[in-house]
Design goal:
With 418 residues, the protein is α/β, with parallel strands linked by helices. Helix 2 packs antiparallel against helix 12. It contains 16 helices and 12 strands. Strand 4 and strand 5 form a beta hairpin. The chain starts with a helix and ends with a helix. A 5-stranded mixed β-sheet has the order 2-1-3-11-6. The longest helix has 20 residues. InterPro entries: Bact_solute-bd_prot1, SBP.
Length: 418
């Protein structure tokens, strides 16, 4: 295992070095005959990073533009971005999460208007799919694909307990009552998914939308009490471990029969199921038995943006076009970033027989579900999630009163500047 990790790390480092050292092209030379170099930042797993680096190496060979890569795992990436954005050291081209775009560009002046760059072919995108990157009438970012909360299950493990794939919240609680004697949880969730499932449950049972069309929270103290009671029940009845204790390896260790993931991210769980010779299944979007509003949303998997003051807008535009439309990049990434929106990229994957696997199945479920609503970026705001989870933990660890915590959370949320 150690030897395998070292070999993989060496491959990633070698590819990164080659990106910087590769040759130049006469149309992309500086005045002193040196090749243009731009920077690109993104997050991903080791596999996604290695595939991205391989694709960037091809870009350099084709365009004579050197790309200096900056990448890490998602954990910690946001704090790095905060430092870079506020110190002016951000990359020329960068991957952004949905809510970060609006956080960083409050006045619409932080990023380049991509519609002004002729090298970016946007004809491969349905026009409506670009709306998530529009800020004050400018196309400040372009999405790669779309995402939704997805429920994945080890069907073999569920079958061993005589359980069906859960359809409703009651099904999940019933499964927990059967499995908890063996210290097995029906699902596992991180803190963001605790928040999003609570929002979904509240909307389904009350009919209240958590956010308005302007992105401002519509949550009331009563709504928060419903959410906190739901999340507390999830913990107390052993439906999921605490969000702070989330470990995706629990799935491969059979400590959990399911997990909550984004549509673009279930590859790890598919591999784990295959290694255990077990069957993995995608579950439906869970609802209350009789819901008043569907409660589930879709959003971009990630967006590519260019810093407004980049010294090389044409080179950066070529890179963005390559990232979203190139057959070579699509073939390298395969399904590690989910299904691309670009018709050029998706056709390249289809031609190579790469539109397959659990990510593709999850994407098909998402695209065929007409009840999914468009997520506003505020819904993923980290400050909101922190406030909510602080209340969840106060109730769990300190026995705090739910209604009191709902009031405290409401007071904190009202002070946030949205």
């Amino acid at each position: 295992m150690i030897k395998h990790i070292l070999k993989r790390s060496a491959a990633v480092m070698t590819a990164a070095v080659m990106l910087v050292l590769c040759g130049c092209h006469e149309k992309t030379l500086k005045d002193n005959d040196e090749p243009v170099e731009i920077t690109f930042s993104w997050w991903g797993t080791d596999e996604r990073n290695e595939k991205t680096l391989n694709g960037l190496h091809i870009f350099t060979e084709q365009n004579g533009i050197n790309v200096h890569p900056k990448y890490s795992e998602f954990t910690g990436y946001k704090s790095q971005m905060d430092v870079q954005m506020y110190s002016g050291t951000q990359a020329d081209v960068m991957q952004l999460n949905y809510d970060w775009l609006y956080e960083y560009t409050g006045n619409g002046d932080e990023f380049y208007d991509l519609s002004e760059l002729e090298d970016i072919d946007l004809s491969t995108y349905p026009e409506a799919s670009l709306n998530c990157g529009m800020v004050d009438g400018k196309l400040e970012a372009v999405p790669y694909g779309f995402n939704a909360v997805t429920f994945l299950y080890n069907k073999t493990l569920l079958d061993s307990y005589g359980l069906e794939v859960p359809q409703t919240w009651d099904d999940l609680f019933a499964a927990a009552s059967v499995m908890r004697t063996d210290n097995v949880y029906p699902i596992s969730m991180n803190e963001k998914f605790y928040w999003l499932t609570a929002c979904a449950y509240m909307e389904q049972t009350t009919g209240h939308k958590p956010f308005g069309t302007d992105g401002k929270p519509l949550l009331t103290q009563e709504d928060l009490a419903v959410m906190l009671e739901f999340s507390t029940r999830i913990i107390d009845e052993k439906v999921s471990k605490l969000g702070s204790e989330y470990d995706r390896r629990d799935f491969s260790m059979l400590r959990t029969a399911g997990t909550v993931s984004w549509t673009s991210d279930p590859g790890y769980f598919e591999d784990a199921a295959k290694n255990m010779k077990m069957e993995i299944a995608i579950g439906p979007y869970i609802t209350a038995d009789s819901y008043l509003s569907y409660g589930w949303y879709e959003k971009p998997t990630g967006l590519y943006a260019i810093r407004k003051d980049t010294a090389y807008p044409q080179a950066a535009g070529k890179l963005v076009n390559y990232l979203i439309n190139s057959a070579d990049m699509a073939a390298n990434l395969e399904m590690t970033k989910g299904t691309p929106i670009s018709s050029a990229a998706s056709e390249a994957l289809e031609a190579r027989g790469l539109l397959k696997g659990i990510e593709y199945e999850a994407n098909r479920q998402m695209m065929s579900e007409a009840r999914l609503q468009t997520m506003c970026p505020t819904m993923e705001n980290s400050s909101l999630i922190d406030i909510y989870m602080d209340s969840v933990y106060s109730i769990h660890y300190k026995g705090a009163n739910i209604n009191r915590e709902a009031k405290l959370a409401m007071d904190k949320i009202s002070k946030l500047n949205f």
